[in-house]
Amino acid sequence: MTLTKDRIIESVYNRTDLNRPQAAKSVETFLETIKKTLESGEDVLISGFGKFVVKDKKERRGRNPQTSTDLMLDGRRVVTFKCSGALRDKMNRSQ
């Protein structure tokens, strides 16, 4: 099952003394901080969880599969995630 933002808010609400609107505001603020940091091109490191890394992709040659026409795809930014060693160990221990 996929973990949704609503389920994260519910978990924060159940595990803290915050009321539901405060829990929602906390989660929204946290996610907004991560988004703004990634938009600015900085990486986000959360100890014990992992690192979100902004990478610049170069322009590259591509092909339209319907028409077989060659074209140039624009360069772009992507975000990758690398989990921490501690998280990787926990995930692999549960198998």
Brief summary:
With 95 residues, this protein is α+β, with helices and mostly antiparallel strands.
Could you describe the 3D structure shown?
There is one protein chain. This protein is an alpha+beta fold and 95 residues long. It has three helices and five strands. It has helices spanning 5-15, 20-39, 85-93; strands spanning 44-46, 50-57, 60-63, 70-73, 76-83. Strands 1-2-5 form a three-stranded antiparallel beta sheet. It has a two-stranded antiparallel ribbon with strand order 3-4. It starts with a helix and ends with a helix. The mean pLDDT is 95.
Integer tally of domains:
2
Structural class: alpha+beta
Helicity, in percent? 40-55%
Query: Strand fraction band?
Result: 25-35%
CATH architecture grouping of the largest domain: Irregular
Distance between the termini: 17 Å
Q: What low-confidence regions span 5 or more consecutive residues with pLDDT below 50?
A: none
Could you tell me the CATH topology label of the largest domain: HU Protein, Chain A
CATH superfamily of the largest domain: IHF-like DNA-binding proteins
* Shape call: elongated
Can you list the strand order of the major beta sheet? 1-2-5
Order of helices and strands: HHEEEEEH
Average pLDDT score: 95
Rg over C-alpha atoms, rounded to the nearest angstrom: 19 Å
DSSP helix count?
3
* Record field, number of beta strands: 5
